[in-house]
Amino acid sequence: MGGLRRLLIFLLVVLKEPNMPEADCSCVPSSDCECPDRGFTNIPQDLPRSISGLELRRNLITTVNRPLLARYINLTNLGLSGNQITKITADTFTYLPKLKQLDLSKSNITEIQPGAFQKLPLLESLTVHSNHITMIQTGTFANLSRCEFLYLSFNKITIISSGTFDNLPRLKRLHLCQNQITEIQTGAFANYLPQLERLDLSSNKITIISSGTFENLPKLQRLYLNKNQIKEIQTGAFANLPQLEMLDLNSNKITIISSGTFENLPKLQRLCLFGNQITEIQTGAFANLLQLERLDLSYNKITIIRSATFENLPKLQTLYLKNNQITENQTGAIANLPQLEGLDLAYNQITIISSGTFENLPKLQGLYLNKNQIKEIQTGVFASLPQLEMLYLNSNKITIISSGTFDNLPRLKRLNLFQNQITEIQTGAFANLPQLERLDLSSNKITIISSGTFENLPKLQWLNLAQNQITEIQAG
Ligand SMILES: *[C@@H]1O[C@H](CO)[C@@H](O)[C@H](O)[C@H]1NC(C)=O
Ligand SMILES: *[C@@H]1O[C@H](CO)[C@@H](O)[C@H](O)[C@H]1NC(C)=O
Ligand SMILES: *[C@@H]1O[C@H](CO)[C@@H](O)[C@H](O)[C@H]1NC(C)=O
Ligand SMILES: CC(=O)N[C@H]1CO[C@H](CO)[C@@H](O)[C@@H]1O
To answer: Where does the signal sequence lie (predicted)?
Structure first.
């Protein structure tokens, strides 16, 4: 090892080009020069011509142009992040035909002239995030036939004109988040982005998604539209995205989910709609999402769940409906979901749980009904939940626990009933819960604990009866 090392050092000395002051950079000829944080105001002109990498991040460089780069024709990596370059003119990089990675982030750039990146046939990654770019002129990214990664986040772009991203045959990721985009022109992404897998448009000011916007993106897997101001999604907006797995529409201003909105998304696994203003979900809105595993509708203004709303979702595992205004249920609204494991209905206005509400949920493990207005639980409501382990009914208005309410829950481990108005627990109410470990009945109005109330709970580890009005505990 030591011998090899000595040989390498010897070679480095031999290979070192003559008369190279190296401007404080640490260089390996034919390889890389590392010159971050050196206070350079210009691109140094005294480094080995043979280098393939030049890292100049966090200097004070204001100008980059063709003559200044002409010396380093073998560069494959050029890092100019964190400088003070304001403008990239046409042909700046045309003497760097081998360039694969170009980083121009955090450099105060306001303008990129069309042609700036032309004649970079091998460029794979172009990083321009965190600048002050307001506009992308058509043709700016033309001829980047090998480009796979294009990062334009954290700029001030307002419009995506049609043609902007035409003809990027290898592009896999396009990041446009944290800009000020209000408008996406028709065809902006439509003309030949055959490899695009990820498109991030989050944290912008988009108000409408027109039909056809995401047409012709045969490989798109993830589409981020969260944190915009989307009010309207036109029919067909997401049509023809055969590979889409994740669609994030969180934190927008959507009020209605029309039927057909998510049609033709055969691979969709995750659909995020939390933090909108949805009051209505039309029947069939989620129809035919055969691969959907996770649907988040929490923090909306939904008042009613119509039956058949969640029909035909054979793979759905988690359904979040918390923090809505659901008062009414229709029998069967959340029934028949063979893979559902988690159902969160907390923080709603539900008053009655009718029998049949949770029918045919053979895999349900967690059911959250806390912070509602539940007064009545009809018998048999929880009767067909063979896998249920957690049942949260706390912070409701339950007055009586009838016998039979929790029958047939062979896996239940945790039952939360605290902060209700329970005065009565009927005999046998907890009689068939062989796996119950935790039972919280605190903050109720229980006065009597009848003998046999907690009989037959072989796994019970923790029972909370604090803050009640218990005056009598019967023997046994
Ligand atoms: C650039 O690379 C080529 C091919 O490896 C080599 O022949 C040429 O000498 C290099 N140019 C410089 C200036 O080092
Ligand atoms: C960025 O450019 C603006 C003018 O466009 C200038 O006022 C500001 O000082 C520059 N910031 C840096 C860090 O160079
Ligand atoms: C670059 O793209 C433009 C416009 O798409 C085209 O006219 C031109 O022929 C291309 N040049 C090269 C070298 O591919
Ligand atoms: C609270 C409430 O509206 N519950 C309803 C649930 O669904 C059944 C059947 O449609 C109604 O009878 C309940 O009134």
So the answer is: 1-23
